[in-house]
Design a protein that fits this description.
The complex is a heterodimer of chains A (about 325) and B (about 270). Chain A has about 325 residues and is α/β, with parallel strands linked by helices. Chain A contains eleven helices and eleven strands. Helix content of chain B is about 35%, strand content about 20%. With about 270 residues, chain B is α/β, with parallel strands linked by helices. In chain B, helix 3 packs parallel to helix 4 and helix 5 packs parallel to helix 6. In chain B, the strands form two sheets. In chain B, strands 1, 2, 5, 6, 7, 8, 9, 10 and 11 form a nine-stranded mixed sheet that branches. In chain B, strands 3-4 form a two-stranded antiparallel sheet. Chain B has one domain: Rossmann fold (3-Layer(aba) Sandwich). Classes of the chains: A alpha/beta (about 325), B alpha/beta (about 270). The interface between A and B is large, with 71 and 66 residues.
């Protein structure tokens, strides 16, 4: 998991390893002197700065999935909507999917821009108590591609955590891209001082998705990130005409239920495929407000309640700073 | 993992096609698998290079997840999905001891492995090499383009689902292709419509028409749409050849037509 600079030789031991600057591969590397000095082994000072910034944020929740397109952003947005509705909690949603930011569209803020204030970047607000930050707000046009390698993406995530004027928050929900790479390592590292309550893992029922999700769970174990639980999304489709249920993405290996039993994880719930969820996302509206009496909305509410319960029994999130 | 590769490993490869999408989970790997099978059935010799290092799905989709790669004098021998050796595959999935193992790598390490994949796989003679990519426009995409450029890149097939949230990400991928000079062979719309097996009502589960609209908007060729078909999902899950098993289905016709269009576009 060590950092390897782009100009490093092939067998670079990583800038934070014990061998940094000392191994045979380091001979001739332009970074050898700085690695040998030990400076690169010290933790990034940003971790401490972010810890200070996050002192006013009670709960931090990551939404993860090894697989793409399983509904991470849809879930993150609806989790944020649900947490901010009713009992006047302060909620923020941070989108660290740098190359595919979908959150602005899903929360109906496409085309909005971030403003600079004296205390940093101001997030964009959906409601008075629901703030959103995404690289989408920094792009000029919907066609703009962010063609960045890892280090630049990491710099952006650092800025999002350290330089955004988050204010007092009850919940910070972080939506991530698929995979187990730069963005994931960076957000966990940068929040390691501040502490993360845990991760919610999203999957769809089929094995092609679960096989990637198991990797993500392995990632959580490696970086000592607690797993709050697993959500099975797109779980069965009810035909709007004949009301029969079809398994569009068949759970051939027992779905999330079996995986949770095998790995000793909590299954937070199953959200059925409902075309109205996708439509709400395209239109930037909250499905929970649009169709509150649907089975999918009920499933969402149950899941959100479990996450709330997890967080409130976990009041001292600073306890996770190992 | 270091193999003495030969720069000439791609010399026998006639055409190289990237399968791209800004969005995850839209069916890049499924479309790659079915395209490869369709081309193979059309008598072509096909290779698939899976550069999704954090989530390799193709080995399972072709039913070869238990196989291992071997080495020969000219590099890695790919895994063949058929006894006639007309469909070859290389994926990081073959290099992991434990299928649940997470490849927790930052960019530079991914770039190095992709360079090796492009350089060191002994493909032999291939009509078409399909490159399946992870979502996004980042390290893997730049790495595979940089490495393949020395040989050739004939174009990209872009995969999207119908809804705006997905086409939004694919618009960014189109910009990536323009900036890097990759020809867009066309756009495939996947998961468009679901026909209820009980009452035959067609539901637009993920909205409708987004792929064709996107093609018009960006002046790209629309290659066709593939419906949501539980039989296709099941075949992909079990690593079975859908095209062989269900030649009478509507999904079969769409996939065949898309493969033909891609072949035609490659002749241009």
């Amino acid at each position: 998991m060590a950092d390897i600079p782009t100009d490093a030789p092939e067998h670079c031991p990583g800038t934070t390893s014990e061998q940094a600057g000392k191994s045979s591969a380091c001979q001739g590397c332009p970074n050898q002197t700085i690695c040998a000095s030990g400076a690169t082994k010290a933790p990034d000072p940003a971790i401490e700065e972010i810890k200070l910034k996050m002192a006013t944020v009670k709960h931090k929740i990551l939404v993860l999935s090894g697989k793409g397109g399983v509904g991470k952003s849809t879930f993150s947005a609806h989790l944020a909507h649900a947490l901010s509705s009713g009992d006047s909690k302060e909620v923020a949603l941070l989108d660290i999917d740098i190359c595919g930011p979908s959150i602005p569209r899903i929360v109906g803020l496409e085309g909005e821009q971030v403003h600079q204030s004296g205390s940093g970047w101001s997030p964009v607000y959906v409601e008075d108590n629901l703030a959103v930050m995404s690289i989408g707000f920094l792009l000029g046009s919907p066609d703009d591609a962010v063609i960045w390698r890892g280090p630049k993406k990491n710099g952006m995530i650092k800025q999002f955590l350290r330089d955004v004027d988050w204010g007092e928050l009850d919940y910070l929900v972080v939506d991530t891209p698929p995979g187990t790479s730069d963005e994931h390592l960076s957000v966990v590292q940068y929040l390691s001082g501040a502490g993360i309550d845990g991760a919610v893992i999203i999957t769809t029922p089929q094995e092609v998705s679960l096989q990637d999700v198991r990797k993500e769970i392995r990632f959580c174990q490696k970086v000592k990130l607690p797993v709050i639980g697993v959500v099975e999304n797109m779980s069965g489709f009810v035909c709007p005409k004949c009301k029969n249920t079809s398994q569009i993405f068949p759970p051939t290996t027992g779905g999330a239920q079996r995986m949770c039993e095998e790995l000793g994880l909590t299954l937070l719930g199953k959200v059925p495929l409902d075309p109205r969820i996708g439509r709400s996302c395209d239109e930037g509206k909250s499905f929970l407000n649009e169709v509150p009496d649907s089975p999918a909305a009920a499933a969402y509410q149950t899941i959100v309640q479990s996450i709330k319960n997890y967080c409130s029994s976990n009041l001292t999130s600073a306890a996770h700073t190992d | 993992w270091t193999v003495s590769g030969h720069e000439g490993n791609l010399r026998g490869v006639q055409r190289v096609v990237l399968v791209l999408s800004g969005k995850g989970g839209v069916g890049k790997s499924t479309i790659t698998t079915e395209l490869a099978l369709a081309l193979q059935h059309a008598g072509k010799k096909v290779g698939i290079l899976d550069v999704d290092l954090c989530g390799p799905s193709i080995p399972r989709m072709l039913g070869v997840s238990q196989q291992e790669v071997h080495q020969c004098d000219s590099g890695w021998v790919p895994v063949y999905a058929d006894p006639q050796q007309r469909l070859a595959l290389m994926s990081i999935g073959f290099l992991l001891d434990d299928p649940d193992e997470a490849v927790v790598w930052r960019g530079p390490k991914k770039t190095a492995l992709i360079g090796q994949f492009v350089r060191d796989v002994a493909w032999g003679e291939l009509d078409v090499l399909l490159v399946d990519t992870p979502p996004g426009t980042s390290d893997e995409h730049l790495a595979v383009l940089e490495s393949l450029r020395k040989h050739r890149v004939d174009g990209a097939v872009l995969v999207t689902t119908p809804q705006a949230v997905s086409t939004g990400d694919v618009r960014r991928e189109i910009t990536f292709c323009k900036k890097t000079g990759v020809k867009i062979l066309g756009i495939v719309e996947n998961m468009s419509g679901f026909v209820c097996p009980h009452c035959s009502e067609c539901s637009s589960v993920f909205s409708r028409g987004g792929g064709e609209e996107l093609a018009k908007l960006t002046g790209s060729v629309f290659l066709g749409s593939v419906p949501l078909d539980p039989l296709l999902s099941a075949s992909i899950e079990e690593g079975q050849d859908f095209l062989k098993a269900f030649p009478d289905s509507a999904t079969y016709s769409s996939l065949r037509a898309i493969a033909e269009s891609v072949l035609n576009r490659l002749q241009d």
